[in-house]
Write a structure and sequence with these properties.
By secondary structure, the chain is an alpha+beta fold. It has five helices and ten strands, in the order H-E-H-E-E-E-H-E-E-H-E-E-E-H-E. The protein is elongated and about 60 Å long.
Length: 184
């Protein structure tokens, strides 16, 4: 019965979880599979989050001074953590947390697997502000995905160019990589 008392159901702000991933306070146990999501999964998750829909629970294991610990590894997209010893290991929710970290806080393009070629490609995620303000618009269509260059030709022949912040503003596209960078 003592083991049941060690369970804790806590709510954390998304920014705090993302920061803990970036600093290495939250990592993965070595037995977890690699991040494998494609663009469709990322878009659906971002649409749910942007509408404040529940995205399921995340389960973490506290790393203490126990005699048995799992070997930790960094979440995909974390480059140089400040702390190499994690406090928590992600047991369930890795795909969701990795996607959110890569889109919202890594400051790098998201590495996803292309469904057709199965190759790893790099993408940036944006919210189309006008579509987000339209209550009739499906939120997944309001999520715009651009290649690493942030420049893309669309079907109409027009060019979407978000290669500078000024061009992002002019296109009325909000870069999701700046959600938590309030001063910018």
């Amino acid at each position: 019965m003592d083991s049941i008392s060690t369970f804790d159901i806590s709510k954390y702000f998304l920014l705090d979880v993302m920061k803990d991933i970036k600093t290495g306070r939250i990592q993965l146990p070595d037995f977890q599979r690699d991040w494998v999501w494609d663009d469709i999964h990322v878009r659906r998750l971002l649409a749910s989050i942007s509408l404040a829909y529940p995205i399921g629970a995340v389960m973490m294991l506290q790393q203490g001074n126990q005699s048995r610990q799992f070997k930790p590894r960094l979440v995909n997209g974390v480059l140089k953590p400040e702390n190499s010893t994690p406090n928590l290991l992600i047991v369930d929710g890795q795909q969701r947390l990795t996607a959110l970290f890569m889109v919202l806080l890594s400051e790098l393009p998201v590495m996803i697997k292309d469904q057709k070629s199965q190759k790893i490609i790099k993408k940036w995620y944006y919210l189309d502000i006008e579509k987000c303000l339209d209550p009739e618009c499906d939120r997944t269509t309001a999520i715009i995905v651009l290649p690493e260059s942030k420049i893309m030709r669309i079907f109409s022949g027009n060019l979407i160019d978000c290669s500078t912040p000024k061009k992002e503003y002019e296109a009325l596209l909000f870069p999701l990589s700046k959600v938590f960078f309030f001063s910018e």
